[in-house]
Amino acid sequence: MSFREGLEAFLIIVILLKFLDKTNNNHLKKQVWSISYAGIFVSLVLGLLLMVISSYIVGLKTTAKLWESIGGFIAIILVTTFIIWMIKHSGKIKDIIENEASQNLKKGSVSFGFIHDRKGRN
Q1: Which is nearest to 54 in space by CA: 44, 66, 42, 64?
Q2: Counting C-beta atoms within 10 Å of the first and last residue's C-beta, which end of the chain has fewer, N or C?
Q3: Residues sharing a CB contact under 8 Å with residue 85, sequence separation 6 or more, in sequence order
Q4: pTM
Q5: From its phi and psi, is residue 120 left (phi > 0), alpha (psi between -120 and 50) or beta?
Q6: Dihedral pair phi/psi, residue 2, rounded to 5°
Q7: Is the separation of the CB atoms in 58 and 64 below 8 Å?
Q8: Model pLDDT for residues 101-120, shown as the tens digit of each residue
Q9: Which among 3, 20, 30 is positioned nearest to 105, based on CA atoms?
Q10: How far apart are CA 117 and CA 97, in angstroms?
Q11: What domain range includes position 106?
Q12: pLDDT value, residue 85
């Protein structure tokens, strides 16, 4: 995970924790931290998996170039959709996070699912 993604995740977690304070839902902070730790764990596992696949493919010269090209193309798509989303919603990000968290609180939980659901949408 790069610094930018880490900073973004940190800001979202802080906004959620402050929102839980503001709405007197401190009992759900443990759930936010649990989800955060699970996300870190999944990121590490996927990173290790990609590292193993990459080290195997590097031995194959033509496949290595294809692997790099596909990885670069996917990165371009992800970063571009994130930038477009940020441009469209830059002034409302805190409100979007708080509104989604509020809707999830009505269901009795806090979820990070809305983050991935929102990125790349219009």
Answers
A1: 64
A2: C
A3: 118, 119, 120, 121
A4: 0.54
A5: left
A6: -85, 170
A7: yes
A8: 777 777 766 555 544 444 44
A9: 20
A10: 12
A11: 3-118
A12: 78
Nearest Cα neighbor of 68 from 50, 84, 86 is 50
109 phi and psi angles, rounded to 5 deg: -150, 170
* Rg of the Cα atoms in the chain: 18
The region, left, alpha or beta by phi > 0 then psi within -120 to 50, assigned to residue 24 is left
Contact 20, 29 (CB under 8 A): yes
Write the pLDDT tens digit of every residue in 15-63: 888 888 888 888 888 888 998 899 889 988 988 998 888 777 766 777 7
Distance CA 34, CA 28 (A): 10
When divided into structural domains, the chain yields a total of 1
3-state secondary structure of 23: coil
The 10 Å Cβ neighbour count of residue 29 is: 14
